[in-house]
Every structure is written in C-alpha cells, then in structure tokens.
Amino acid sequence: MKRASAYTLSALLMTCLWTAASAQTLTTNPETWAGVMGSPTASCTGCTFIIPAGYTFKLNTIGSCDGCTFTGAGTVDISTAFKFPNNTTNFNNITVIFDATPGSLKNLNFSNDSIAVNSPLTWSSGPVGITNSRIAVNAAMKFPNGNLNGDSIYLNSSITFSSSTDTIQNSNVTMASGSSLSTGNALFSNSVFSLSGTAALSTLKLTSSSDDYYMSGNSTFQNSGTATYTTDDFVLTGTAGFSNSSGVTVNGGTLSTYNNSTFTASSTFTAINETMSFNDNSVISVSSNSFIQGGSLVMNESASFHESSSMTLQGIAVNLNGSTSLSVSATLSLGSGSDLTIGDGTSTSSVSVSTSGLSVRNNSFVGIPTGSSSLHVSSGSFTNDAGSVSIASTTAGCATFSDAGAKTCVVLAVADMTLSATDAGTDKVALAWTDNGTNTADHYLIQRNSYNSDWSTIATVAAGGYSNGDYHFTDNDAPSGKIGYRIVRIDGEGKTTYSPVSAITIGSVNTDASIGIHPNPAVGGTFYVTTPFIGQLIINVYTMTGQLLVHTEGNGQTQYTVHLPTQTIGSGAVVVQTIAQGVTRSFTVLVR
Length: 592
Fold this sequence. Notes:
Elements (H helix, E strand, L loop, with lengths): L16 E3 L4 E2 L5 E2 H5 L5 E3 L2 E4 L4 E4 L4 E3 L2 E4 L2 E4 L4 E2 L4 E4 L2 E4 L5 E2 L2 E4 L2 E4 L3 E2 L5 E4 L2 E4 L3 E3 L2 E4 L2 E4 L2 E4 L3 E5 L2 E4 L4 E3 L2 E5 L2 E4 L4 E4 L1 E5 L2 E4 L4 E4 L3 E4 L2 E4 L4 E4 L3 E4 L2 E4 L4 E4 L3 E4 L2 E4 L4 E4 L3 E4 L2 E4 L4 E4 L3 E4 L2 E4 L4 E11 L3 E4 L9 E9 L4 E4 L5 E4 L3 E4 L2 E4 L3 E3 L2 E4 L2 E4 L8 E7 L5 E7 L5 E9 L6 E7 L7 E6 L5 E11 L4 E3 L3 E5 L9 E3 L7 E5 L6 E6 L5 E7 L4 E5 L8 E9 L2 E9 L1
Parallel strand pairs: 1-4, 2-5, 3-6, 4-7, 5-8, 6-9, 8-11, 9-12, 10-13, 11-14, 12-15, 14-17, 15-18, 16-19, 17-20, 18-21, 19-22, 20-23, 21-24, 22-25, 23-26, 24-27, 25-28, 26-29, 27-30, 28-31, 29-32, 30-33, 31-34, 32-35, 33-36, 34-37, 35-38, 36-39, 37-40, 38-41, 39-42, 40-43, 41-44, 42-45, ...
Antiparallel strand pairs: 49-54, 50-53, 51-52, 54-55, 56-57, 57-60, 58-59, 58-61, 61-62, 61-63, 64-65, 65-68, 66-67, 66-69, 69-70
C-alpha cells in the first residue's frame, strides 16, 4: 500500500508496509517503531523520517527499514535486533545510538551525525561512509569497506576494516588504552592519530600523507606491507613501538622518538628530506639498507640506531650527541656533502659509531670533536675521492675524515666567542660574531677552510670597532661547496684563541633562491627568514646540542617571523634549519 501524501507518524498506526512514502515528521516524543508502523515487525522501504531536535525515535522491535533516510536533529535509539537490509540507509544530522546489535546491517551512510556504538556492529556488505560525524566506539565495529572523512573518532574498543582499500581522511582518531584499529590496504590523509596506553594500530599496506601520529604509553603501530609517509609527523614517547615489516619511506616530515620508544624497519628504510630526532633511550633498528637523503638527523642522550646492513647518507647533517650510538653492520657511506659529527665536544659526551666499512666522498666529512667519543671501522681503512686511506680500526678523541684524508685534530684554546655564517647572495657569506673577551683582544683573523684544504686567513679586523663585542664581516669571494669559518682572537701579548667553527654550503642551489636571516645577532630572540620564492618553507630551530626549539611551516610568503622561547635569549647561539625546494640549509644565529 503506497501513501502519496504526507501524514504525521502518529497517523500511520494502521500502516504495516511503506514503499517510497513522503517524508514523515515525528510528532510524538518518544516514538516507537511499533507506534509508527502499527506492528513491531513491520517493514519500510525507501522511507524518510524527520526527527525534530529533542525527539527520540526508538527502534526497539524486530522491524526493518530498507533504503530509508533518518534526518532532522533528534535521536534514533536502536535497542533491539532491528534490520537494515540491502539498499543504502542514510542518517543525516542526527544522533544515532546503537544499544543493540542490528539483525541485519548493510550499506549504512552517516553524515554530520553523533554516533554512539554501545553494542558490536558488523556490516555484511558495504561500502560504509561516515562523514563529518562524531563517533564514540564503545563496542567492536567491523566494516567490509569503509570511508571515514572529516570525523572525530573516540575509540574505546575496536574498528576493523576487512576490505582491500580503506580510507581515513581529514579526521581525528583518539585511541584509548586497549583499543585497536586494523585496516587492509589503507589511505590516510590530513588526519591525526593519538594512541595511548596499549592502543594498537595495524595496517596491511599504507599510503599516508600530511598525517600526525602521537604515540604514548605502550601503544603500537604495525604495518605488515610497504608503507609510504609523506609530510607526516611522528612523535613516540614512553615505550611506544612503531614497526614496519616491509619497506618504509618517510618523506618531508618529522620523526621524533623519546623515552624508551622504538622504531623498527624489518626491511629497507628510506628517508627523504625528513627531520629526525632520536632522544633519551629510544632505539631505532633497520634490518635491511638505510638510505637517508636531505633533511637532518640528531641523536641525543642515550638513543641508539642499529643498521643490520648498509647505510647511505646523501646531503644530510648528522649530529650524534651525548652518549648515543650508531652501528652499521656493512658499509657506512657519506656523499653529496654530508656531515657526520660524532660527539658534541663536551667532557661527558661518549658517542660510539661502529661500521665494517666507511666511505666519505663528494665533499663529505666525518668529525670527532674533543672528548671521549670514538669511531670503529673494522676494515682498517676508509674510501674518499682519492681512493683508499688506511686508518686505525678504532679512532678515539679528536679526528676528521674527508677528501683531505684522515687527520688528528690540533686541540685549540677556544675563546668565549660565537660565530654565524649566512648566505648573503652570489659568492657572498655574511659573518657575525660576538666576543665576551673583546677588552683583551688586539685584533681578529678571519679564517676559511673548504674542508679539503688547510685554514687560510682572508681578512683582519681590528678589535674594539663595534659596540657590545659584536662584529661583522662579509666574504665577497666565497668558493662553491662546503665552507668552514672560524675567528682567531689575538690579544696584546700575541696569545691566540679560537671561535667554534661555523659551516655553510654555497652553490648547492640556484643563487636566485638564496635564503636570508636577519638580524643576526637576534636581539630579544626574534629574527626573520626571507626567501625569494613563495612555496613551502619549513623552519626548524635547534639548540647547539640538537634540542628542537621551534618547528614551523609556511607557504605563500617571502618573509617569516621566528620567536625563540624566552629561556633561549642570551644563550649564545642556535642553529636554524630551512627546508625548501628539496634543499636543506643550516645557519647559526647569535642570540642576544
């Protein structure tokens, strides 16, 4: 029997079967399925129910609704094995409460809803779409195929996707201890995943872009197939574990580990322009080859990185501080102007690096500052552009390995000076330094080293020419490649002391795309980063020991303002890293 005109739900008590009826508005509160349909087992096909705000429609019998629409701003309460067979049923802009498991569950779509899942839900067919909704998952949900878009999901139980392709986009997923989220081949994008306690996230094969993953407690994230993460941010704390059984690639994002967390790649690990910071007692383990290009890698405290095969570093600065360790079972290879600094130069630093073979080529550099850090190369040699160079199997203390060969350091008296080197345009480098001992200085020598030659003096600056011990000089004839600068202070009695070395790379990118930082020194902890292009720019600011202070991303501007934390003002210097157009640059900025 088909009704062509609109009736209120209370007027339809004698109707047992609707097909494609006009929209009906609930007028009794609360209303029940039997009250509306005249029978607790009645069926409705293609019907639309409008539930006003403050009203509740109770589906508390074994009826069925096939291809229906529930809309309005009220509540649908499902408290029995009600059936949703075959055709797609839509819930729009209402509250849906599942207090019982439906007798049949197929093809449900939710849009702008508030959903409470208090009883297990298993869809026998899909797809299932949930869009711009708020979901409290207090009982298990299982989808054959799902698309979650724009949702806020509070997961206290489990969600399982059983199909080959599933998507979570533009959503916030909060996973409580003991909860789980399991997918097949999945696409995640522009979403935030927060895992705590013993929460578990697992995927078969994953493509992830612009997502944030925050893991704490003993939470786990396991991917069984290949995984690609593009511009994603990872923060692992506690004893959280992130593991990949097949190849994993991270590109253009950040990866930070703290406490006793672990990052494991059972196959290959590839990092492109990734900012990585491994801290505390966290452990990174890779079973196959590691390839790391661009970006940066800083290890602090007692973090460790274990590579069971070979590691290749291309165009990246790696700083190993504190008592960290890096072990490479096969060959550790540096190329394209990479820097590996073993130890932070303090008396308590005892970094350990071990490898079977070492290759340092294409203007790359390995340095061990003064201290208790060491490099162990079991082959007893390393390869540079000139060929094989014999070295001791273990080198402790101060040494360098580069195109110039292996050299032990001459330990110099270090003055209380800070120095920064900044790209100032074509073949130009702007130097700025401060000297707390300027009252005893007679003059300064500015020295330059191209990392394959000895230090050479390029200028002399008289002492006392600037106020507050601040000095400036521009090298107008800087060579291409990686350059080191240092300042030699000479007092009235001829005694010499040295500033720390500040490094910069010239000519690695188009000079029209130079990035500038001003003012330097940064008075009051504020400075500006200028760029001639308006594409994406990532700015990271680190302490001199590698602690991340500021992370910001911009787009569409040519100047960005950076405010340092108050506690850094007057600290001496910070390292500013910029990532743009696939190129990573580092600058030292003095802080006054």
